[in-house]
Amino acid sequence: MKLRWHWQTILQAPHRLAFFLGIVLLVFQSAWWSVVQWHRLGASWGISYAVSPTVIHSTAMTLGFMPLLFAGFLFTAGPKWLGVRPPMIHRFFTPLGLQCAGWLLWTLGGHVHLLVAVAGGMLTWAGLLWVQLMFLHLVLQSPAPDRLHAQLIAAAGFIGVMALGAVVLCLLLGSTGLARPLVLMALWGFVVTTFVTVAHRMLPFFTASALPIQVVWRPVWLLYLLLAVAGVESLIPWLEFLGMGSGGNGDLWMLVRGLFELSVGVALVWLSLSWGLLKSLQIRLLAMLHVGFSWLGLSLLLSGISQCIGSYTGTPYLGLGPLHALTMGFLGSVAFAMVTRVSRGHSGRPLAVDNLTWYAFWLLQGVVMLRIVAHLPGVSSQVLALTATLWTLAMLAWTVPMLGWYGRARADGQPG
Hints:
- The chain is an all-alpha fold.
- It has one domain (about 10-40, about 50-405): Cytochrome C Oxidase, Chain A (Up-down Bundle), CATH 1.20.210.10.
- The protein has 15 helices and no strands.
- It has helices at about 5-10, 15-40, 55-65, 65-80, 95-110, 115-140, 150-175, 180-210, 220-240, 250-275, 275-280, 285-315, 320-345, 355-375, 380-405.
- Helix 8 packs antiparallel against helix 12 (about 285-315) and helix 10 runs antiparallel to helix 12 (about 285-315).
């Protein structure tokens, strides 16, 4: 018997509501950016801009759908980590709704009026702060002896809250030049920090449970090393904003930064292999997690190469390519895998990947590589627009089936 889809079912568990809203925002923002890219190439769609579309895009893709996906995961797995009862589902309605409505207003304001975007940003900021306080409350009341990962994730969340509030304030005051270092601080200090903390806790265990020959290896010092890398990378944009690398010291700065990122990239690629990247390819869901994690090291390798070449040519060779290897490759792929895993498991479905999801994942990998190639000398600017369109198609192919799951009861008849 086919299970009936109903709005009330979405409200039965935190992951259902948070993932549903997060996916809707992801697809909306992706499609909007695709339209903007084609408009920039001359498509006559009568679009005007009240705020820089780059600011609207970078802020929303960093702090828009990701915190909603975080909420779905953390309020599902977090209470189990911490040994506490999860909050009642009705407590999520307002903060998650504020975030979703706020980001829609944020995008609309980018075309209509600055104050509309600011109003949307304020709603989103309030919703994000609300959710972070809810998670902090779980951490503080936990009797669990090991709360390190949850504490780090809670702390990272407030970096995101601070950065978003500052971006909105800068927009209101007309200081949009500050938006870039603030967004990059949120990216590394909040989003990447959350990802590497969850990966350190979960990825070795997922691998060992699926591949018994793989040993669980996740020393605490490794987590601190990952966090230190994220911390340095979140600091770099501020140093450059304050003038580091400008003038006569630019070439030396790019060389030093490039060598640092090359070293870290090599270490992270080694870590990815040590955690079982090659062995994971036997199992689709596990492979998606490992391939996604490998992009963290690859993105830093690419950035290091770009900076080192730039120390001779005067400008980073790959432009924004390494940044998108991080955001689309690492963050996009790991989110793809984790949301798939939680959504399948908590909808009563087997932890196996169907063909559509598998092909959509590899389409995503191709899009990431195309996005990197788009910055090579001589490549047509149309490639950027094509990349945005293919990304949107990959997201649609992945998310549409799951939107159906969230509105239906579990396939195994269990509650949740």
